[in-house]
Amino acid sequence: EDYNTWQKRGGEGWGWTDVLPYLKNLENYQGKSTADRGHSGELMVQDMRVFNTLPADFIDSGIALGLPQNNDFNTEPDGGVGIGQLNVLKNGRRCSSATAFLKPIATRTNLRIETRALARQILFEGNRACGVEYEKPDGKTERVLCSKEIILCAGSLNSPQLLQLSGIGAAGHLSSLGVQVVHDLPGVGQNLQDHLYLPIKYRLQKGVKSLNTSLRPWKYPVHMIRWLLTGGGPLCMQTSDAYAFVRSRPEEERPDLQIALRSASFSFDENANLTVDKYEGFTLLVYHVRPKSTGSLQITSKDPKVYPEIRANYLSHEDDLTALLNGMHWARKIAGTPPMASRVECEVDPGDSVRDEAAMVDYIREATASVYHPIGTCKMGRDEMSVVDHRLRVRGLEGLRVADASIMPVITAANTNIPTVVI
Hints:
Shape: globular
Radius of gyration: 23 Å
Largest sheet: 7 strands, antiparallel
């Protein structure tokens, strides 16, 4: 439905049937073969390994609440509860996009990789992109010219920044900063969307194990040796173990909340340093996966080293706050349903005193944080605020495309990593 929505918003050729072959071609799934999974691509995908009983308890509590068990979130419809998957190699190391796609071709003679280089601006001859100016680590400025096309993939924050630095954006704003306008394109930097998460932390009953004990600093050498020798142990897992996808309201056509189990709990000190709690605990994370709030990004200087102004406008749409509020109720229902209920000693944050709606809203506004899934700032479409067309060509210009998460017109109801790889 995410991809079909892109198509309806002007992204011809980006519907589900169009995108599925690319998803399959890039994937090397180590699990059961199905019609919707790929098994010969560059990105390794495997089911998550679990190291305690909490994920199974979480799933059983979700099933007790009427949620269907989902054995593969990539193929089973309508959400439910189950274990997640990871991009991990067989040796327990992360299979990043660089590992999968870039390193195998790094020695090709027609490829030159410049690292630690700051792109300063895109160069133009009239309305045609003809090169890129960048700064090397020693401070020297160099230019690379092109005869065909430039593909900009600097991400949802830096792509609109670089376009604006190059004179592409809202003409009035660029002129006020002394930037020479190449093309008036007011949508650059608009339509910023992101996922938020809300943590709810619990202390476990005595005798019930989480990962807190395993994550004591003096145990790191043992974990490291195990990981190096076998690719296993806590160092090969991600922060969350199991997931439930649910509807915040019955009238929602499809799930708009993700409840994630993290089999550990931790706190931040005044300097934002993370410390694992000394007691055994776990955290439930509430994600609103289909937010309606939108923000913006704009440069405040023509100096590329000056950070742009980012206005996320989180929770500015009333529905987003309502969804997280209902998500809090959902998380508490899971934690309060056997077998999870028999494992819980108490809710630590926000705690039992935060039960009325006003107090819950205050906690949401205080504790909610970004998942770092920014998208949409160079959106694809046909309207006047669209930045690229369905071929990802920057509207009104030649020789320039954008190919990263910034072109998504609407955020995906799941993590944005793989959709970005597809793009």
